[in-house]
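User: Hi! I'm a student and our assignment asks us to look at how structure tokens line up with a sequence. Could you show me two examples?

Assistant: Happy to help. In each example below, the sequence comes first and the structure tokens follow. Example one:
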Amino acid sequence: KLRKEKPEEEVFVPKEEADVVALRQLQELEAAKLWQKGKINAYYTSLSHIIREYLENRYEVSALERTTDEIDLLLKYHKELEERTQQQLIELLQLADMAKFAKQEPTANENEAALKYAYRFVEETKMEVIRATEEEKNKVEELESNKSVRLSGVEATSKNNFEVSSKEKELDSND
């Protein structure tokens, strides 16, 4: 017998928040101790990739395929990113570029500071989830259950029944 194949069920798996992914990757990078083992290029390549991927996921900026200067220009459109924070981020990416492409060897202090700044940047720029208080939730529920709108003396309920207000009734009876 030929059976029709059942369509596979699509399972929605929520995407991890950009900051959660970035912080985990930064912890893994820190644990790998690449720069301490003399793998400066690998350290900065990873650090740059983590930050660029975070920018893509957090700000929807195609940072992985862009130069540092292009990223700088794109981020100017994100007004929620403070100018000081953006400037420090660009300095971090420039340091990574110098270590990766110009074979410059940053000092141990610079290596540690770069990682610390990467952590701070992610923490300072992560999306905040604002939770509604019980009072706010109750107010929303109340508004949703009482879906009536006042329009110039006519009350329209969610059932599309229209009732003329007593004020309009008075006006009509005076005519």
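Example two works the same way, sequence first and then tokens:
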Amino acid sequence: GELGCGEEDCEDVELSPDGQNAVWAKQKQLWIAPVSGATPAHQLTDVRFTSGNSFGAAMAVSLDGAPLRSSRRILVQYGTRSRPTGWQEQPTRIAVSGRSPVAGMEIKSYGGAPWQVVRARLEVVVNNPGLTSATVLDMNGMAVKTIALRRSATQIAFSFPDSAMYVVLR
């Protein structure tokens, strides 16, 4: 449906047919993996994400304004569960005004440094055979290394680095 942001470039945001949160726009495609990990793979219009993590959020965004299928620069981002050391939570019921209590989590301890970040286990396929390189970025957006792409006549694929959060495809 219409986002109502009032900008010329505003695009529609919709849920995918299977109910997963997804941005079904030509220039951005987002998938948030289910917490249960019961659906490890999800095909969006031009990107397929297959996660080996129990939870994660993956996104592919065109950096040159072109649709992902023809973009010459795409940012792929993947985040997994991150919690401070010692984080503790437990299931609880939460009172909601005028309604029955709902299931939720109570935080028992916020923990502290250092943060524990679950290593990424993600396979990515992009329907764009014109892409020829993949560069891993650090948390400051600086190039760290290149990784191999697997190619076919219609798409490229790669294994997301287990300790990264960003990859730029060119």
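Here is something you could point out in your write-up. DSSP finds no helices and 17 strands in the chain.
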